[in-house]
Design a protein that fits this description.
The complex is a heterodimer of chains A (217) and B (113). Chain A is mainly α and 217 residues long. Helices cover 67% and strands 0% of the residues of chain A. In chain B, a hairpin with a 7-residue loop joins strand 1 and strand 2. In chain B, helix 3 runs antiparallel to helix 4. Classes of the chains: A mainly alpha (217), B alpha+beta (113).
Chain lengths: 217, 113
Amino acid sequence: MSEKVQKIVEIADDELILGWRDSEWTGIAPSLEEDVAFSSIAQNEIGHARALYELAARELGTDADTLAFDRDPGEYLSAPLVEERRMDWAHTIARHFLYETADEIRLAALKDSDDAEVAGLAAKMDREEQYHRLHARMWRDRLQDEPRFVDALEELWPAAVAVLPEELRPQMSERLQLDLPSNSLLRGFERGSHSEELRPLLDEMTMVRRSVPGATW
Amino acid sequence: MGALSRARGSSLIFEVFRQEKKGAAFAHAGSVEAPDATFAHAYAHEQYGRRQESEALWVVPRDAIHEVHDFHDELHQTYHRVDGYPLKEKLRLARERAGGTAKSVDALSAGGG
């Protein structure tokens, strides 16, 4: 897998897994409006994953569904931050806010890519992500004095930093005015290691697909 | 009291108007409940725009809307209304007056009535 394809699959895996995790709130979000909004955001993330998988699949000579659903858990390149099972609302919003911040930095770098196709897709995704960021920031503003939210931000900060490649991490630290975590704090959250929650998630996510292998849906 | 319970306590209703195409009139689409205008904006965007069904939205606090609904007509002032002037009847009379050469009148009646 080339460096370019690896980068695309990393982001696609993040978006797919987080989209799936966020969709665990469908039907039980704090208000009906929030339910619709958060579910819609979750669907958008999965839509971004699809576009990225399609791009990577062309390079790898496979298709998007195969990439998304037919790999072993160890082959996924997602960051542990997005893998954790649905948490309380404070943690969910903290993860959402941190992820959107990291994603904005990552997409900005990708928009400058030499590869026109990658840059174009990043620009498209970024336009949709603006509404995710609006949603994340309004919740951050609302909860920022809540001890549960403050604790959740602090707890998830190392895993959030680890979403980004090393060269982009200082931007994250500067943007949120938080010190970069030490290497020992980052260990366990780096891409390549996975949360224990990933395997059960993938089992559930691919249950229907695996029920009739090779079927055309 | 936490922010979450404050949010419950002070929810506002915002009415949402949706424009389907550029230049079209905005029509009432529904409402969203939200703690403030920023939340209302985000919620309306997802609820009434995620399927690309809207060109633009107006999100308006319900309090800003002045409802006017008292329309009495005790004295039957029907002269304000146009339903006393059926065009069809006028056209029929005009046709009669014009006799057999009523082609232009027919053209008129096609568009009116």
